[in-house]
């Protein structure tokens, strides 16, 4: 269950939250909301979690479930206070340890309740304030802390992932200053939710790094409007949204027509760290905990009315200017990297079949655009190629134009490729999608634009 790589920033909100003490209490619910679950992790130092709220998951898998929890992680989960304990200062600490033989242990706790979901027409918010393991560089190799939720039908089945849904509110690997948030659903591999990658976004921590201070991570599940949404936030800033209309009705229903349970854990090794260098290895330092200040679940009742449909895109992007590829509003499967192309900056890399990026509010004006071009590079192996496609307003829309690309001489060997498109006027959300008959990465993109 791998989450990979949308960004917004609001430094003032971030700074205000980071300034709270490490033992801050769970916030009271806003007007119109009620708290349905909360744990401040108050208790004597060295004691375990409150088993009225939490249950330990131990071993290397669920009983009869996939080995290594289905992710390839290498630790053994325990209920020992060496791995899972309160610190006496209002925090829970989940600490990976390594014994003299090189074997790793860690902790994984789950809420006993598995009925967390919004009421009809209402909202649900799952939130935690936590500090990622404070370790970076080579010493962090293999670390994989997470705050997440799984659909209730997973319990007792263990083989119905990802159809029953997964909400990764906070994931991190290798001590990077970054938070990944992802919804998993559908079928694997591939399917409507691009598994095993899922539908994901990412954001760096502002102010203190994710490892250097406490930050607040949340998902808000909103059933109040005509289109159900999962909105992921970091320090109060929503940076990634998954909407019901991004997948087919059956996939969404299977992932959301039930409750969820909440999980806190630190894995070591596995698929996600493997995508960023692997580990753990001999240089990895044990003993760095995920520190959790509080977990709270709040809900707002339905109003009996629905939110009116959203207004059309506001047209904040000029179709005929240069749209930097890394300036996306949402994405799935892409990675930002430094480019050596003229002008410098960043490009989008690691683009493969099923990946996409969204650029909201692109204004084409009243004279139809009939050409699309993009700055691309490819170091794909022989026989690997794919299509760069443009779609309007929905990823399920038919492409209005596309071009094929194969190896250009290297991942930083850039060329501008034009393509004809169907005439477009007005303001639209533009999806850049990538389609290939192979699973390998086949293109990088630096910028895109349109012409008459």
UniProtKB/TrEMBL annotation:
SUPFAM superfamilies the record matches: Concanavalin A-like lectins/glucanases, Galactose-binding domain-like
Domain CBM6: 321-451
InterPro entries on file: Beta-glucanase-like, CBM6, Cellulose-bd_IV, ConA-like_dom_sf, Galactose-bd-like_sf, Glycosyl_Hydrlase_16
Spans through the membrane: none
Keyword field: Signal
Presence of the UniProt keyword Metal-binding in the record: no
Signal peptide extent: 1-24
Residue segments, region Disordered: 97-120
GH16 domain: residues covered: 22-303
Lineage top rank: taxon: Bacteria
Gene3D superfamilies the UniProt entry points to: 2.60.120.200, Galactose-binding domain-like
Family label: Belongs to the glycosyl hydrolase 16 family.
Name of protein: Endo-1,3-beta-glucanase
